[in-house]
Amino acid sequence: MICISVAAPTVEEAKRILASGPEADLFEIRLDALREPAVAPFFSLSKPLIFTFRAQEEGGLRPAPLEERLFWLREAATHGASFVDLELACGPEAVAQLRSGLRETRLILSYHNFQKTPSKAYLCDKIKEMVELKADVGKVVCMVRRPEEGLELLSLIVWARRKFDLPLVAFGMGPAGRWTRAVSLFLGAPFTFAASRTGAETAPGQLVAEDLRKVLKILGV
Ligand SMILES: O=C1C[C@@](O)(C(=O)O)C[C@@H](O)[C@@H]1O
Q: 153: domain CATH number?
């Protein structure tokens, strides 16, 4: 599945992207991008929604206290979000607090590293923590400099499924990681991220959804 990541300064603009994204199977609403965060206006759409209020340390577009971020994720869940995504680094207390308020909404626990791909052992520990904190889906997204790093990230998808039965989104950011965004789906990642159009990328190396769809079709997903 392709998830179009939507980082727009206003609700109107974000909704325009949602209305014009036929390639998307789901959308990620980046609340940290909105000048005035809101969740309710997004629920007129029939496609599943992920809400996240990304922490600045992991690529968020503005600083916001943890309490504010948790508040908006809880709001999103109350309105019927399919997923909420919180950084694992927020810690067990914040995760438990968010988790206790979820009904149907599934919890994504995520780890992003915009500098580098840490060692596999380190990333496996992060995934173990995600499992311990009862993530429904895990996510590990790191900057890759060499194709081998991309390969390591992809191998985590298989490892997490075999060892913990955890659906894991994992791929590499940056130009050297572009291929991993497509290939991750072959290895069982539940979804991958793409941009709505050129210029609307929310992370380095993101492909435009339309192009990604073509690649997947050629490769046979
Ligand atoms: O985790 C991810 C993946 C991402 O960083 C990317 O590289 O496409 C984009 C983010 O918006 C999203 O939350």
A: 3.20.20.70
Which of the listed residues 141, 169, 181 should we mutate to test ligand 1's pocket, taking the one with most ligand atoms within 8 A of CB? 141
Average pLDDT, integer, range 165-190? 98
Domain containing 52: what range? 2-219
Burial 151-188 (b: 16+ CB within 10 A, else e): ebbbebbebbeeebebbbbbbbbbebbbbbbbbbbebe
Question: Considering its fold, how many domains does the chain have in total?
Answer: 1
Beta carbons within 8 Å of 175's beta carbon, 6+ residues apart? 204, 205
SS3 content of the chain, % helix, strand, coil (to 5): 45, 20, 35
pLDDT digits (tens, 9 = 90+) for 35-91: 999 999 999 877 999 999 999 999 999 999 999 999 999 999 999 999 999 999 999
Q: Is 141 in the pocket of ligand 1 (CB under 6 A)?
A: yes
Q: Is 202 annotated as a binding residue?
A: yes
